[in-house]
Amino acid sequence: MTMDHSDKPRVGLFVTCLVDAMRPNIGFASLKLLEQAGCIVEVPQAQTCCGQPAYNSGDDATTKAIAQQLIEAFESYDYVVVPSGSCASMIRTHYGALFVDDPVWAARQQALSAKTWEILSFLSDVMAMQIEQVRYQGTATYHDSCSGLRDLGVHDQPRQLLENVEGLSMKPLKDDDVCCGFGGTFCVKYPDISNAIVSEKTDAIANTGADTLLAGDLGCLMNMAGKLSREGRDIKAFHTVEVLAGMADGAGIIGSDK
């Protein structure tokens, strides 16, 4: 029997460099959630970086070449979904500046940018997904990553999705909309300032009394989880999709299973 998938949106999952290299579980959790939401999901093997490191370093020529490669790899899909507000914002918000003098590529870029979504926003705003029969036993607090919050308006969506996770209670985080100090190349260029910012963030996280930190960007999570680990704080960190997919097992990001 052949199933009719004609009414299901076809999604190209852009995994991101960090997820692929450091935490593939986030990619598998994203795939699981998208399929549960009713999507046909493919992961184009031609995908590489979104170009953000080059863009933030002022290398527009390299960024444009990367963007053209990404557009070619993903433009056939109904949607492009990204488990990172930072990378999703690069494609959706910043690609336009690269093609202002190139009308042919500008049209292709605009079409791709318009159908690119951060995953938690996509699951909530586009697919109206309801989380069911998922359990996470713990108390968590949530950090809003800068690009997802400021560029894409991702704030209520993760909190609404997490409301239906059985066993999970949420604690508000003071200054949850303040940067964690990562900022991509910022933490490399200004390590002392970055460390001062993340120190204030981990103090705020610890003061909530939560045993788990959640967010929607692996770069921010690695920065905060690394600092929590160096400070000897017993707080696990997960990407939100790992909890929503029922795949938040073990010690979490940067933690070690004992």
UniProtKB/TrEMBL annotation:
Domain Cysteine-rich, first and last residues per copy: 11-92, 141-224
Any one Pfam family match given in the protein's UniProt record, by short name: CCG
Q: Molecular function (GO) terms listed?
A: oxidoreductase activity
Q: Which InterPro entries match?
A: Cys_rich_dom
Q: Which GO terms describe its cellular component?
A: cytosol
Protein known as: Lactate utilization protein A
